[in-house]
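Onboarding guide, step 5: your first structure request.
Type a short instruction followed by the sequence, for example:

Predict the 3D structure of this protein.
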Amino acid sequence: MRGFRIKPRLKNIDLSVLRADQIDFICTTKTVDRIRCRQAGITFDEKLADLMEEKVKHYFVVKSNQDYNVISGVILDPFLDKYAIKVNRTITSKGEKCINHFVKNLK
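The system replies with structure tokens like these:
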């Protein structure tokens, strides 16, 4: 029997059915931007990122099956608080794979 790996997939995430136990990793896109800048050799501007985040938060959500997407325009704070989900915690291996897959495919 051949083994297989689940590969990261950029896929729409239906927030109405998302459960806390399905989330492997979640961060603000500021974390993704920082990684992208480091890989490109560009200096990351923390102040500018903070100002942008004040206006609209964008979340990078990774599910345990390695489906991921950037979610914006939705206030996730009540959901995150209710289930004690930590944002911007240590990047998991699935989170790192999905971030690298996302960054690699940006144009």
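Each response can be followed by summary notes, for example: The chain has four helices and four strands.
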